[in-house]
Amino acid sequence: QLQLVESGGGLVQPEGSLRLSCVASGAFTNYYTIGWFRQAPGKEREGIACISSVDVSPNYLDSVKDRFTISKDNAKNTVYLQMNSLEPEDTANYLCAAGRVAFNFWGQGTQVTVSS
Q1: Residue 88 main-chain phi, psi, to 5 deg
Q2: pLDDT averaged per 10 residues in sequence order, the chain, 116 residues
Q3: Least C-beta-crowded within 10 Å: which of 1, 32, 95, 106?
Q4: Which stretches does DSSP call E strand in the chain?
């Protein structure tokens, strides 16, 4: 059973930056598609970025495309989400997930709050 643990969230002012990390209990970046999702209170969970195991171009939600970057370090079993120019609307619990056909493995999430 693959376990995922997110970290790096926190309170940041608008226009600030954060880098989230998702560390897996085993090798996963070479075997799974990995995605970052977020869920804000009262809203549905949405996928914001994903990267495949074969290093094709990542995919992004339009609203984050020019601000967020997903990347991975195979040697560290870690996937990152660099978030720049954060907006209050980005406030949410951010989760990473991994899978092949579907996202079968999920972390617990890390809270990101964007506020002045």
Answers
A1: -55, -30
A2: 95 98 86 94 95 85 96 91 97 96 94 97
A3: 1
A4: 4-7, 10-12, 18-24, 33-39, 46-51, 59-60, 68-73, 78-83, 92-99, 103-106, 110-114
Non-local (6+) Cβ contacts of 9 within 8 A are: 18, 20, 94, 110, 111, 112, 113
Please give the DSSP secondary-structure letter assigned to residue 90. G
Output the pLDDT for position 53.
Answer: 81
For 63, the 3-state DSSP assignment is: helix
Phi, psi of 105 (to 5 degrees): -120, 130
User: 62 Cβ partners below 8 Å, 6+ apart?
Assistant: none
Tokens found for residue 29: 């970046």
The SS3 of residue 25 is coil
Phi, psi angle pair for 73, to nearest 5°: -120, 100
CA distances to 15, 39, 42, 90, 107 from 53, in Å: 31, 24, 32, 27, 18
What the block records as the tokens of 102 is 């579907």
